[in-house]
User: Fold this.
Amino acid sequence: MQSPARIHAVDLNPTQNHLLELKVASYCALPYEDFWRLFGDGKHPDFRTLLMTKLSPHLSSRAFQYWLQNIHVFTNKRGYGLYDTGGSRHAIRVFRWITRIFGVRRAVAEFLDTKTLNEQREVWRTKIRPALLSKLLCNLVVSQESFLWSALGVP
Assistant:
């Protein structure tokens, strides 16, 4: 299969396009450890240096300016960095709250530490799914249109 000659990304929110550009630039220019800190952990204390020295050649001027003005997203010592911004932060906060209330935080940690897809499936099927997709939770959160729009964005 051949690689595409071009890829066009269209989003009503320009920030989403800047994030996509940052991901592509990071994939092209950074070692795995830095890539993981940005998009796995959502934080990187040296983001400004990475942006100026390694990422800027791979970004459009608009994306570069956006990230230069929003370095705090990755360097803020409080909060969860990238994952504490944008509309999806609401869904992530609700997920954290639900895992605490329903007592599945350890199961989520176990899920993240699994080594195989079969192990992930088992933890999901037996521990996480029953709590997250319980009738009560679906009625209170998942079925609420206002939550879906504000937390998860346009479907």
Observations:
- DSSP finds ten helices and no strands in the chain.
- Residues 88-152 form one domain.
- The CA atoms of residues 99 and 105 lie 5 Å apart.
